[in-house]
Inverse folding.
């Protein structure tokens, strides 16, 4: 009995091995592209809103939440008071791709997309400035535009023209 | 006897008269009671309904009830509870109500990170808005270059209007509208007129009022480097908290100091800081107008000093140690030293120092008879603020001035020519305006009153009851520290040495003898006798432009130091940040793993004056003697070093007494037919503050202010050191026969406030 059981278990193991014959799960990266899962956390980028303007409003929540302090930015202000990052710097030799910045971002500007393998000769070359970070697209969220929901007025959006807003009140009215 | 009540079973101590919320906040228990409209300096209102607590009655007859902690006077043995469900429900529902129309602005709101509304919302656990209807919106007002309004964010706590109308007694800001359309602002767009408008930013618990200057160069508060500092813009010495980031100063906030500024700060203190980042600020040593290296300029200066023909000029604008360092160096070299630029200013300083212990602003706010001499608001706005607090308590205010200032409109105004001020002050002891008071206080602007007026003030004070106090204010942070070691007649001796060619080089520290300092006219006539002038300063000035060598020094938030304020309070300030440059590629040579986000930071800021003076003493082989003298003087003036976080140390009376024997200042006689000069200032005007663009954009036009009786478009004033032509600005508030001009004008003419002046009017064409 014992001999028979040993042989059957041996056979089962062999069958598992034989079953894999003909299947190829190894990809010869980098010649072949990878099929990355949708929630893959690659290199962070800055995206644009559906209108083509940059999404980042320089609220500095990403740099606050970053556990490795690899994000540094300075806020700037356009004439119509719209905030934008004057400088935005990520040091990828410190970044650990944890995705906390993406979670913290209230405007869906910073997103971890699919680029994950990049190498440089010097550490200093890993410091990416805003020009290298900002992409021409909306990333994973094609429709969201923070300023349509926010209450501030901009050049192309007056008070009361945002989503779910009433027209501005007349403070000089004394009607009940 | 210790008074306590119980909050959730914990003992909370209180002082009788306090309300429950005040005592709970003082005991650090504010985590249990959220609140909005209560402010320690503005009191309770009960408008927001947020600070609910459940009160259990002493007897068993009444059921427990929910009440507002800010309106409930604390009493012994009171049993209060916040940990029950109905209290939580109240807290949560009220904040949800307040948040109904609050916009989704936090990412672009400057208040984010220091927002009371954010804190309270998180504290009460309100995270999901049940209301999904459209939100109310407002149009914003343009409130000038200092305060930014975003009215959508308002939760109608009324703190702003309580501050602006009640505490600051401003008249151009209020509440408008009815029901849920209530709005806070001005009647129409325009800059806020009060010199305390910047406090709206701190008082507002949400982001309705935010700092417009900070807005242009914004960082989140959690990224700011902050530290204890003292305001360098007038003699009051308010405590401040500068905030810096990446080597640049971004903003100034108030630091609570009950004895001096309490919870507030004037606009000069808050918005004058951009002198630190001004493009005109000298950052590199300059020799003959060319940028050079530190050692080159030091070698040049050392060779100058070795010649032994140098004079030393300190400044009431610089801190105590730097002045003492300069004085010690002068002492080692047996060279003449002066702390102020003219004999008049010297007499003024001596008379200020000879006054007995001045009242702190906290004491001023508690006075019941106040006499203000001159335009106090424009010299030391926070002193004017303390007077307003006394007025709220029912104090009687008398203002003696040559123009009807804002403060004068709030009390009895006696229009007086500057020359009449002295006589009036001398008779104040028998004046009805001080009779019947418990605690009379006299506050003078030193420059308007002049040395002889300050002497009269001291004599008057001797006749008044023992608890009467007097204070004299200047717009220099350290007049009281700089002048202590200057001997009698020191300025005259320095100028005499220059006239007699005993010296041909002047080492100045933070002074502007060729520009706008007192007596600049005399210095200009002496300038040809100067072979070279070396200046250590942090702002660009007339003197800096014509100096042979210019040595930049660290600005006040960049270094440690001591200021002596108008009451003789020695206050320390500590370095808050360093100027630094970003060096991205140093990461390659460094440890291999880069520091921080964007590479290493490399300090580039200029060193403080003491560093330069120390190096100079080293090059002259005097370092040991210099250090010994400096330590001795410093120990003499302040045996115990004040702590930057503490309330400072008062100068001992024995040191004050040195000046009581100072010579009686000469008095000038002015006939009624003659035109008399008075000084015109505005609340934001001061040497450092003048380089702050946003604040300076509010400055009134330069001109010669006279009563509208004078029908002229311009006038030329004739003084001993030169003529001055200025446009005439008719000013209905002025007393007839008085001409008010700015300090630059006085410097050009070589005259002083209260002097008679020759005028030629240019009539309308």
């Amino acid at each position: 009995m014992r001999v028979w059981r040993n042989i059957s278990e041996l056979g089962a193991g062999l069958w598992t091995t034989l079953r894999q014959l003909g299947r190829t799960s190894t990809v010869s990266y980098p010649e072949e592209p990878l099929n990355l899962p949708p929630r893959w956390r690659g290199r962070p980028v800055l995206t644009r809103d559906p209108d083509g303007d940059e999404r980042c409003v320089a609220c500095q929540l990403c740099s606050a939440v970053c556990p490795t302090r690899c994000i540094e930015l300075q806020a700037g202000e356009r004439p119509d008071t719209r905030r934008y990052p004057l400088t935005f710097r990520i040091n990828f030799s410190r970044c650990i791709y944890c995705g906390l910045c993406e979670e913290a971002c209230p405007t869906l500007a910073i997103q971890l997309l699919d680029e994950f393998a990049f190498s440089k000769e010097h550490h200093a070359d890993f410091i990416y400035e805003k020009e290298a970070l900002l992409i021409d697209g909306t990333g994973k969220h094609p429709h969201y535009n923070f300023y349509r929901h926010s209450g501030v007025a901009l050049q192309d959006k007056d008070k009361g023209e945002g989503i779910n807003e009433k027209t501005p009140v007349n403070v000089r009215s004394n009607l009940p | 006897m210790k008074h306590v009540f119980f909050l959730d079973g914990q003992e909370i101590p209180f002082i009788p008269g306090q309300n429950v919320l005040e005592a709970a906040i003082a005991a650090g228990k504010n985590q249990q009671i959220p609140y909005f409209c209560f402010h320690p300096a503005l009191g309770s209102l009960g408008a927001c309904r947020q600070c609910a607590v459940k009160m259990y009655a002493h007897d068993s007859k009444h059921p427990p009830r929910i009440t507002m902690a800010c309106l409930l006077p604390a009493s012994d043995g009171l049993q209060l509870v916040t940990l029950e469900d109905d209290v939580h429900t109240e807290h949560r529902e009220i904040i949800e109500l307040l948040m109904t129309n609050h916009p989704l602005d936090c990412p672009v709101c400057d208040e984010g990170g220091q927002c009371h509304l954010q804190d309270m919302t998180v504290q009460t656990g309100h995270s999901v808005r049940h209301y999904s209807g459209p939100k109310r919106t407002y149009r914003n007002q343009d409130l000038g270059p200092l305060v930014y309004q975003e009215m959508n964010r308002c939760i109608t706590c009324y703190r702003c209007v309580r501050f602006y109308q009640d505490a600051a007694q401003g008249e151009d800001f209020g509440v408008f509208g009815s029901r849920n359309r209530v709005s806070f602002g001005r009647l129409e767009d325009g800059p806020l007129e009060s010199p305390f408008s910047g406090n709206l930013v701190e008082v507002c618990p949400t982001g309705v009022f935010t700092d417009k200057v900070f807005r242009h160069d914004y960082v989140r508060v959690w990224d700011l480097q902050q530290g204890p500092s003292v305001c360098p813009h007038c003699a009051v010495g308010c405590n401040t908290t500068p905030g810096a980031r990446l080597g640049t100063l971004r903003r100034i906030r108030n630091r609570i100091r009950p004895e001096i500024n309490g919870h507030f700060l004037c606009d000069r203190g808050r918005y004058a800081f951009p002198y630190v980042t001004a493009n005109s600020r000298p950052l590199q040593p300059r020799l003959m107008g060319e940028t050079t290296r530190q050692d080159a300029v030091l070698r040049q200066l050392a060779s100058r000093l070795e010649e032994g023909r140098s004079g030393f000029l300190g400044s009431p604008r610089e801190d105590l140690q730097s002045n003492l360092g300069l004085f010690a160096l002068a002492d080692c070299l047996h060279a003449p030293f002066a702390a102020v630029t003219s004999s008049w200013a010297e007499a003024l300083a001596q008379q200020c120092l000879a006054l007995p212990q001045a009242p702190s602003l906290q004491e001023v706010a508690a006075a019941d008879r106040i006499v203000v001499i001159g335009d106090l608001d424009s010299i030391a706005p926070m002193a004017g603020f303390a007077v307003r607090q006394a007025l709220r308590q029912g104090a009687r205010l008398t203002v003696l001035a040559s123009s009807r200032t804002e403060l004068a409109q709030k009390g009895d105004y006696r229009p007086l020519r500057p020359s009449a001020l002295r006589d009036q002050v001398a008779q104040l002891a028998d004046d009805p305006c001080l009779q019947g008071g418990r605690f009379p206080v006299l506050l003078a602007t030193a420059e308007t009153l002049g040395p002889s007026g300050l002497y009269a003030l001291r004599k008057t004070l001797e006749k008044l009851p023992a608890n009467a106090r007097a204070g004299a204010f200047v717009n220099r942070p350290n007049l009281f520290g700089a002048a202590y070691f200057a001997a009698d007649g020191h300025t005259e001796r320095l100028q005499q040495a220059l006239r007699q060619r005993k010296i041909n080089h002047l080492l100045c520290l933070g002074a502007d003898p060729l520009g706008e300092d007192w007596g600049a006219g005399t210095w200009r006539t002496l300038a040809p006798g100067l072979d070279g002038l070396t200046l250590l300063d942090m702002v660009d000035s007339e003197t800096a432009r014509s100096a042979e060598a210019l040595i930049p020094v660290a600005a006040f938030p960049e270094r440690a130091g001591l200021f002596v304020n108008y009451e003789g309070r020695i206050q320390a300030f500590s370095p808050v940040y360093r100027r630094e440059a970003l060096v991205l590629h140093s990461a390659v040579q460094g440890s291999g793993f880069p520091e921080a986000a964007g590479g290493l930071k490399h300090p580039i800021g200029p060193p403080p004056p003491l560093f330069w003076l120390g190096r100079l003493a080293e090059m002259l082989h005097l370092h040991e003697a210099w250090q010994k003298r400096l330590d001795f003087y410093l120990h003499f003036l302040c045996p115990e070093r004040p702590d930057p976080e503490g309330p400072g140390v008062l100068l001992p009376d024995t040191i004050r007494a040195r000046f009581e024997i100072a010579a009686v200042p000469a008095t000038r006689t002015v006939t009624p037919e003659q035109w008399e000069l008075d000084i015109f200032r505005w609340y934001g005007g001061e040497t450092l503050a003048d380089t702050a663009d946003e604040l300076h954009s509010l400055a009134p036009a330069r001109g010669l202010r006279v009563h509208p009786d004078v029908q002229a478009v311009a006038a030329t004033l004739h003084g001993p050191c030169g003529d001055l032509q200025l446009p005439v600005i008719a000013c209905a508030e002025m007393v007839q026969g008085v001409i008010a001009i700015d300090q630059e004008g006085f410097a050009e003419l070589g005259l002083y406030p209260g002097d008679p002046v020759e005028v030629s009017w240019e009539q309308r064409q």
Summary: Chain A touches chain B through 47 residues (CB under 8 Å). Residues 2-19 of chain A form the longest helix (18 residues).
